[in-house]
Amino acid sequence: GIQVEQSPPDLILQEGANSTLRCNFSDSVNNLQWFHQNPWGQLINLFYIPSGTKQNGRLSATTVATERYSLLYISSSQTTDSGVYFCAVGVSGGGADGLTFGKGTHLIIQP
Amino acid sequence: DTAVSQTPKYLVTQMGNDKSIKCEQNLGHDTMYWYKQDSKKFLKIMFSYNNKELIINETVPNRFSPKSPDKAHLNLHINSLELGDSAVYFCASQRSGANVLTFGAGSRLTVL
Questions:
Q1: What residue of A is the nearest CA neighbor of B43?
Q2: Environment class of A82 (CB within 10 Å of its CB; exposed 0-12, middle 13-18, buried 19+)
Q3: Using CB atoms, which residue from B48, B50, B99 is nearest to A31?
Q4: Cβ contact (<8 Å) for B41 and A96?
Q5: Interval A29-53: pLDDT, tens
Q6: Residues near A54 by Cβ (< 8 Å), separated by ≥ 6?
């Protein structure tokens, strides 16, 4: 199956800092999503981004499908950004195939 | 209104018992999933149902059985619970073709 590697595994930053999280995957995909799991355990979809670039407020993501990686940028970090960020990929035919998750990047934003 | 709801949120039980976790989505999605998150936060897919048909069944023990009475519900039944079944179980749903996956809040199962 598809392998998904995320880096770094852990990241500790001060409030206001910027960060880049990386996701490498081993095979061609047509589905890539970024999720944030907050300290209360809830998984929130941040981006559906199989290719190209998207921005949502302080967050943006870029996927270069031909080179099999995706980047998540967080600017001007806030303490509420803390949590685990997951990249998940899949090869979706009719949309019923599940996503394979990376092990996540654990981000801690200190005040 | 909660888009994907799971019950119970917490479940503590003894080894050997049988338990169920329920999931309902009101998004009109036609595909639902169960994921297991272990103590190291690793998320792994267990099952998916598309229009009440099992599409994926990963290497999950047959003590676990998904049941879908209709496309808005996907319940997870677990027989003869073992210590290693302790985890957080997430239900998720998506619309075929749209591919954005929406998760429920999770059900934390603790087997003593």
A1: A101
A2: middle
A3: B99
A4: no
A5: 989 999 999 999 999 999 999 999 9
A6: A47, A60, A61
